[in-house]
Here is the input.
Amino acid sequence: KQEVTQIPAALSVPEGENLVLNCSFTDSAIYNLQWFRQDPGKGLTSLLLIQSSQREQTSGRLNASLDKSSGRSTLYIAASQPGDSATYLCATIDMEYGNKLVFGAGTILRVKS
Amino acid sequence: DGGITQSPKYLFRKEGQNVTLSCEQNLNHDAMYWYRQDPGQGLRLIYYSQIVNDFQKGDIAEGYSVSREKKESFPLTVTSAQKNPTAFYLCASTAVGVGNQPQHFGDGTRLSIL
Here is the structure.
């Protein structure tokens, strides 16, 4: 059974700092890995989706990498801004259950101005 | 604009009462999902449906029921059998059979016990 873990659980950084969020998964036979952002009281917004054949994906100041062999993904945020403050979740697809997503518990990020 | 609409945003349930959460999508997606989110935990799957008139239980289906009579709609009923219903409920949808596609989420319904 796939399990997804995110470290750290919470992170507080000053504005402008580059930061890395970590995601690990127990079953390396993944179809893809997705990073989401969740603002308080809101639903999830998809940030980046990395297919199993890819090593990384980039969108603006965000870069997500995937290393299937070690069961890890990282989300790199460059030049962080207070508007980046949110909870970041990673998830992989479980193909045996109708493409359901298996989520980590998330990292709560606070960027201080 | 295409998207997923969940209603209501906040819902209160009395003891012994069934309540229904609405989820509607206009993305023409075949697959729809209901997740439950508790503080400090990741999302857990309640039910999912990949086609109209068919649905399957997820990891925590006990105390919940769903229907999928229309492609656009996937309502979730929280029954009185669910003893700990207080949580944030999220509905999602995705296309089926078109390769890697991200799941789209609604803005959620927060359910509390009166």
Summary: The mean pLDDT of chain B is 91. Residues 16 and 80 of chain B are 5 Å apart (CA to CA).
